[in-house]
Design brief:
Length: about 270
């Protein structure tokens, strides 16, 4: 019995049930309304790949996973973790939609309004000085250690408007603790991907206050990360019609299969 369990993944049954749910006629129709028929199927396949790679996600309810994925689809972002645009993160048995820093950056760049856009760490030994008239920071001194003391955003719009935005490390951590429900969870991105979350916080706060996004994207960005509640409009797993495999894949897809799906989505 022990040898059989070692060969068979613990969550294989739950993964199979999730696949059936994600490929159902009802769920595919929801994503088709957002992405179109071909892209909907490819996008759902990319969600299945993300769940197949994460046993903790396989413990989440199918409804919460697909609700989180729908938010990514609405923003035209991939939730494949290798793309770093958006993430499906498990939290207390439900999936949480979390924007990645690259997703926010890509949303800004695709508006075509930016001449340049960058966010970068500021290291110990560097002094950050702000010009109160121009609202622009300058850096003096030099790096004396690898300890990050803050992050800075710098951008300029095609119109000529330029801005910098800076937060210290303590300010970033205080913001995360105040607004993120999962901040203290050991599995939270704030614990496992701290630098990326710090970069994302400065990028999001700076651009939502001073930059430009498409109006719909701006509305989504104004919301803090949250645990996705069950979407009452999504059917229960036992109430959907299973369509069968619409793409040939393995439970643990190789890089070629994954890249083919991402190419179909335009990522």
């Amino acid at each position: 019995m022990t040898e059989n369990r070692a060969i068979q993944p613990i969550n294989s049954t739950k993964l199979a049930h999730f696949k059936d749910y994600a490929r159902s006629a009802e769920i595919i129709q929801r994503f088709t309304e957002v992405l179109g028929n071909q892209n909907a199927m490819a996008f759902v396949s990319s969600v299945i790949l993300a769940v197949a790679d994460n046993t903790a996600l396989q413990e989440c309810t199918p409804q919460s996973i697909m609700t989180a994925a729908m938010r990514a689809a609405n923003l035209r972002l991939s939730c494949d973790p290798s793309i770093k645009q958006a993430y499906l993160v498990p939290f207390k048995g439900k999936a949480t939609f979390i924007l990645g820093w690259k997703g926010i950056q890509d949303m800004a760049i695709r508006t075509g309004r930016y001449r340049y856009l960058n966010v970068f760490p500021v290291y110990e030994g560097t002094e950050v000085i702000e010009d109160p008239f121009k609202g622009i920071h300058r850096l003096e001194g030099g790096k004396t250690s690898d300890r990050v003391i803050g992050y800075m955003l710098a951008f300029e719009l095609i119109s000529g408007y330029a801005k910098t935005f800076y937060m210290t490390w303590d300010e970033i951590m205080a913001h995360g603790k105040k607004y993120s429900r999962s901040f203290d969870d050991p599995r939270s991105p704030w614990k496992t991907e701290t630098q990326k979350m710090a970069r994302k916080t400065v990028l999001r706060m700076g651009l939502t206050q001073y930059g430009y996004f498409d109006p719909f994207d701006q509305m989504i960005l104004s919301e803090e990360e949250q645990v996705i509640e069950e979407d009452a409009t999504l059917p229960e797993p036992e109430d959907v019609q299973y369509l069968g495999d619409f793409v040939e894949e393995e439970d643990t897809p190789g890089p070629v299969v994954r890249q083919q799906i991402l190419d179909n989505l335009g990522f």
